[in-house]
Amino acid sequence: MEWFGQAREWAxxxxxxxxxxxxxxxxxxxxxxxxxxxxxxxxxxxxxxxxLAIAAHTGRxxxxxxxxxxxxxxxxxxxxAATVAxxxxxxxxxxxxxxxxxxxxxxxVPGDTSSVLRRLDELWAAAELPLIAFDLYTAPYPDATFAxxxxxxxxxxxxxxRLSEAIACQDRIAxxxxxxxxxxxxxDRMFGASLxxxxxxxxxxxxxxxxxxxxxxxxxxxxxxxxxxREATRRxxxxxxxxxxxxxxxxxxxxxxxxxxxxxxxxxxxTDPYAPPLPxxxxxxxxxxxxxxxxxxxxxxS
Length: 302
Fold this sequence. Notes:
Elements: H1 5-14, E1 18-20, H2 38-46, E2 51-54, H3 66-78, E3 82-87, H4 90-99, E4 103-106, H5 113-127, E5 131-136, H6 143-151, E6 155-161, H7 166-178, E7 182-185, H8 191-196, E8 201-204, H9 211-221, H10 226-243, H11 251-261, H12 282-295
Parallel strand pairs: 1-2, 1-8, 2-3, 3-4, 4-5, 5-6, 6-7, 7-8
């Protein structure tokens, strides 16, 4: 299959990596405060994230200005992270490239196959950054369109985030791998399963905090200790059941609270201004569940 050299090279380098999609620090007024991201991003890398996905959905990318995007991407680079950026249009690709992003995660936009492919052409032409296509449960691509996306020469990888559609996730991972492209899991609620189905890299919002839980699943999957993989998956699944639940878009606020509980973000920068209404006791419930997981540390392998 024809694909651009930059895309092929990036896919090879990204294989096996964990990209955490961090929250963007927002103050109580709803203003983005990227200047406070430095220690947070460094902590994610220190805890096991190989890369950071800036301005992804977890970071409320569609709502960020160009200066905020630029500062966040540069901060991620200074933290020593491989860096990708969420984008919707060619202008955002140009910003990402100028700030040092290595690839871009393309938010899905509905359209027929021809218009979707033209958009990929435009995004590639903006900076020749490898594209990570995004098959999202709220806007899944039809089969024919998805197949055409995978075969686009600028597409290095495809992130699957089908949430509860296991068969769709399995089938599309298989198609991506059959075409020689990199299958990226974004399946926070079926993370371990998606690895067994063939995903080779992860880009997930569930790693916006408590990175070690996600890292453990990846590490044990690549080893030979099946009980360790089962235990790591059990713990991550329990964490996901607490954070990725109805209303699902509330996960950003839940992850920010957990980042605060870990000391990754200061208490006055834990607001998600785009969160849906959540129950009044939601924060206490989430932090209590996280506290139980944190105190239930598995035995270290000998």
